[in-house]
Amino acid sequence: MRQSQLFTKTRREAPSDEVSKNAQLLIRAGYIHKEMAGVYSYLPLGLKVLNKIENIIRKEMDKIGREILMPSLSLQDPWKQTGRLDTVDVLMRTVGANELSLAKSDVSYVLNYSHEEIVTPIAQDHRQSYKDFPFALYQIQTKFRNEARAKSGILRGREFRMKDLYSFHCDEEDLLAYYEKAKESYRAVFDGVGIGKDTFITLASGGDFTTGFSHEFQTVCEAGEDTIYLDRANNIAYNKEVVTEENAKKLSVDFDSMEQVKACEVGNIFPLNIKFSKAFNYTYKNEKGEDQLVYMGCYGIGPSRVMGIIVEKLSDDKGLVWPKSVAPFAAHIVSLGDSEEVKKEAEELYSTLVAQGVAVLWDDTDRRAGEKFADSDLLGLPLRVVVSEKTLAAGAYECVERASGTTTQKTQSELTDYLAHA
RNA sequence: CGGGCUGUAGUAUACCGGUAGUACGCAUGCAUGGGGUGCAUGUAGACCGGGUUCGAUUCCCGGCAGCCCGACCA
After folding, report:
1. Is the CB of A371 under 7 A from strand B?
2. C1' nearest to CA of A339: which nucleotide?
3. In this predicted structure, which of A32-46, A108-122, A277-291 has the lowest mean pLDDT?
4. Could you check: is the Cβ of residue A191 within 7 Å of any atom of nucleic acid strand B?
5. CA dihedral A93, A95, A100, A106 (to 10 degrees)
6. pLDDT digits (tens, 9 = 90+) for A195-223
7. Which residues contact A167 (CB under 8 A, 6 or more apart)?
8. What share of chain A is helix, strand, coil (3-state, %, to 5)?
9. Is residue A115 over pLDDT 80?
10. Interface predicted TM-score of the whole assembly (ipTM), two decimals
11. How far is the CA of A376 from the CAs of A1, A333, A380, A383, in angstroms?
């Protein structure tokens, strides 16, 4: 698209109330707008990135489950059955569809917190025979948690995006087999969005969900809230919360020899076993016609948090740096000066790329070179293509990779070729 | 939820017990055109409530909001 048509503008300074790198850069570059503590609107550029991340997740999830959409405001009855109305502090509760309340006493509705209570009856409604198993359902939706302290920009909001996947099995063995498949899918997701090599499966306490360990996907990042003990040789990590002498024995590991690093939890998977099926008395008939409790697993990824982590990890002092897979545009054409030849050339290049289906942003504004470059750096698109009198004379565009800073000269056919393979 | 800090144009900030200055932005014009260019003109502001005071944006109290530390957190 033409930058002159872009809704947002960049700004030089970040708001003084934002300290986190991700919020500062995303706001300066016009990707998000802050509504209140822990709540951000996603502007056109930010929404593009978020959608790309979610589509990468969708692509992997579709291989192992079916997408559905569950309500974000739900009646309390299912929640009564699991007792979580009383145990979860960050629930946003309402007394009616339009009356918000945080009091535990007068609850009629619960705002989307997590969906075990919703998905279990849905599954129960359609699948009661052993022949129907296994299966898995997932959704991507906005979630609400009444965090006592929202922080770190989009890393920990009170409203955020979340994908949750739920799997249903006849027995524990099948659940665990699927659990391993889910791990592989998760790896593919994090590889896909460009943070795979710094993301480690991490043993964590299961919290309310399981008596054993759950598995977190932790991305090494200074902005993270967790500390993990990293065993790089074995490509596994341990959340500090499970680092005890007892666990060292149980797992036969030596925590002292491991590297301690800050990390951010970008995904988490749990073997729920029969916790929720028991609460809802969700059983299936086996071959002998006997009722058996269903085994469940749940698997979460926060796309908005993933977006924040990408910013935290990859951006530099000049601005954002997006991996090609999630960038809002593949290339940024920057035309300089006001010569008619340059304008014509840029227009022609832009039309050609658009016709080829390349997502390209063209800075067609009448601004000075310095401002355009600074803007371009801030926006963080993977490739900058400069069109100017210089490049016309040279017969090739000046192409700069945002991530590496590598500059090359490319003719139009070389450029289209490059973008086709990017 | 405890503790701390902070609320001044759209943004970033300064000063002040006698109602505010700068920069960016925005608007207009001229110049300029490869790293947020220069000049000129214009635009726009004290979170809310109460108290002290002749007078409060400034001091005090309360509220609200934001940030940070901790607690919490699938």
Report:
1. yes
2. B33
3. A108-122
4. no
5. -60
6. 999 999 999 987 656 667 899 999 999 99
7. A65, A134, A135, A136, A175, A178, A179, A182, A296, A297, A298, A299
8. 40, 30, 30
9. yes
10. 0.95
11. 14, 9, 6, 10
Quote the pTM value: 0.95
Instruction: Tell if A268 CB is < 7 Å from nucleic strand B.
Output: yes
For the domain made up of A331-421, give the CATH fold. Answer: Rossmann fold (3.40.50)
Identify residue A221 by its one-letter amino acid code. Answer: C
| Contact flag, residue A163 CB and nucleic strand B, below 7 A | no
**What is the CATH number assigned to the segment(s) A3-72+112-314?**
3.30.930.10
Instruction: Give the β-pairing of A236-239 and A226-231.
Output: antiparallel
Q: Could you read off the pLDDT of A228-249 as tens digits, one per residue?
A: 999 999 999 999 999 999 999 9
Please state the domain extents for chain A. Answer: 3-72+112-314, 331-421
Which structure tokens are listed for A181? 């498949």
Helix (H) or strand (E) holding A375: helix A369-379
Three-state DSSP class for residue A323: coil
